[in-house]
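Thread: nicotinamide-adenine-dinucleotide complex, take 2
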Amino acid sequence: MRVLVAGGAGYIGSHVTLALVRAGYVPIVVDNFSNSRRSVINRLKLISGSDIKCRDVDLTNLADVVRVFQEEVPAAVIHLAGLKSVAQSTAYPLNYYISNLSITFNILSAMTCIDCGEIIFSSSATIYGEPRYLPIDEEHKASPLNPYGRTKLYQEGIIQDWADSNSRASAIFLRYFNPVGADASSLIGDAPTGAPNNLLPILGDVAMGVRSEVTVFGCDYPTRDGTCERDYIHVSDLAQAHVAALQCQKLHGTEVFNVGTGRGVTVREAIDTYSKILGRPLAERLGERRTGDAAASIAANSKIITRLDWRPQLGFEDACRDDFNWRNKLDDLIDV
Ligand code: NAD
Ligand code: UD1
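Output below.
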């Protein structure tokens, strides 16, 4: 089965592409490499031992998107392409709305042209905003706190309207909690361009000496050790959730699934775990709270476990180990 992976060269998309090959699907990566490297495709070929088809296309260009769909004729689409920085979305909201929404309009239009009715969309737990209760289930009110989160909510709405209007369409929204880690091969992983904002890449920077210390954003939260708690999901488990979504019995319409472990890890625990993997303590300092941070964000994951027969196989320590191994290889790999 041919599956078009929009954004398939990115951090999560590259792991999804690998999981698809391993599950016997034929992925077609469509990416313009605006936030990823061309060498990812060669590295995916190395890990999988398979040829990986890749089309260099800007998904905001409707004519190009329709042409690539007509040429490739995928049976399903996994849509991970778009801009994803919360801070950038607040500074340049129109860029975020124009880019993320037009990519989705174009993908749905091209799917309609070739009569392709199956889409899996990368959504985010950021859609829930400040949690009203924990763990957060799929019924939790969606109330995003920034333009990036609103682009996710609007894209879900657009895809839902499209699916409702098409009797052969089915759409699955996967709301990711905090993706971390790297493939066990250490050949693909998170390689943010510019200074990272997320905790794990920052811990990796401190481990590699790129940054002198990590600042703990607040230690007076109502959590077990006062630091914020998050549900970190290993990216390889997350990738596998896409395969489970492709394999499930499709009903007409739309389904939403949280993808998380159901367990929280605090910033304190994250630093300690990464330090243990490193074999020495990571330098840290206590700082002020970061604006917009919730004390805790943890997924209720029983729906995906029951309905898609998916469950996480890897823990946070695995993610730190895989991230560290990847960071050790990264400089040698960029052009491979
Ligand atoms: P990423 O930036 O690594 O991957 C996105 C890919 O899309 C990149 O390869 C980029 O080059 C490509 N892309 C962007 N604009 C494009 C365009 N106009 N045409 C063609 N390709 C384009 O991001 P990621 O971390 O892999 O995230 C993938 C998806 O998952 C995103 O939609 C993101 O919002 C969502 N998500 C990510 C996280 C996270 O923490 N990483 C959490 C929740 C949801
Ligand atoms: C952030 C985004 C969220 C996005 C997610 C994944 C915000 C407010 N939220 O979530 O929308 O979906 O990334 O890309 O930006 N921390 C530190 N020191 C640091 C960095 C982080 O203490 O230098 C703490 C944060 O306070 C947080 C935790 O580590 O409690 C995780 O932070 P991060 O990786 O940025 O993820 P989120 O804040 O959950």
